[in-house]
Amino acid sequence: MSLQKEHRAREAAKRMRQADGEDVLEGLITRYGWAIRGCDAAEDGAMPVYAYTVGLARVGIPDLMVVGMPHPMCGGLLNELAAQQVEAAKAGHKTMPGPLVMDGVERKLYLLPIGHDAVAKYAPEVLEAAGAAHWPILQLCWADMAGSFPWEGGFGNSGIEQPVLGTVPGPAH
Can you tell me the distance from the alpha carbon of 6 to that of 110, in angstroms, rounded to the nearest whole number? Predict the structure, then answer.
């Protein structure tokens, strides 16, 4: 097979995998109301593992992202938080940035709004699912064992990176 044909075959296979992935994502959103997209760490080390919800826009609430937490842990956390936020929305409550308390989670949690550029770079499926050029996504940050968040002095997370993509709160928090 010529190099040109090999390239076309690889590109066609890639498009098919992407279409299959989109179909799976859409199926999960249709069935559960959202899906979770897990992403591996960047090869250049610029970004650790992360995961985010896709589809919460369909019920009018921000999607959610966790950065630096292993997929099995963050998947459960995102599913639990998404379910809580959907129920809260049904009761007329809005998902807002700020401190967050979740049953069964001992560490302090905080939701930060993520800027459009980071959403477009790290979570483009959120914008596609929302059918919008802009859609809010909140980063779920967790405190270290001493109770410090990544934007606070003294934060130490046993070597696990937790880059902050959102807008860091002022000193009053």
Answer: 48
Nearest residue to 82 (alpha-carbon basis) of 37, 22, 128, 19: 37
Check residue 31 and give left, alpha or beta (phi > 0: left; psi -120 to 50: alpha): alpha
Q: Residue-wise over 11-33: b if at least 16 C-beta within 10 A, else e?
A: eeeeeeeeeeeeeebeebbeeee
Question: For the whole model, what pTM was predicted?
Answer: 0.79
Q: Cα-Cα-Cα-Cα dihedral of 57, 89, 94, 81, to 10°?
A: -80
Distance CA 122, CA 129 (A): 14
- What are 155-161's contacts with CB under 8 Å, separation 24+? 157/68, 160/48, 160/68, 160/69, 161/48, 161/67, 161/68
62-116 pLDDT, tens digit each: 999 998 888 788 888 999 999 999 999 999 998 889 998 888 888 899 999 998 8
> Is residue 22 very low, low, confident or very high in pLDDT (cuts 50, 70, 90)?
low
* Look-up of token digits 């992360």: 50
Locate the domains of the chain by residue range.
Answer: 1-32, 37-173
Query: Mean pLDDT throughout 131-151?
Result: 86
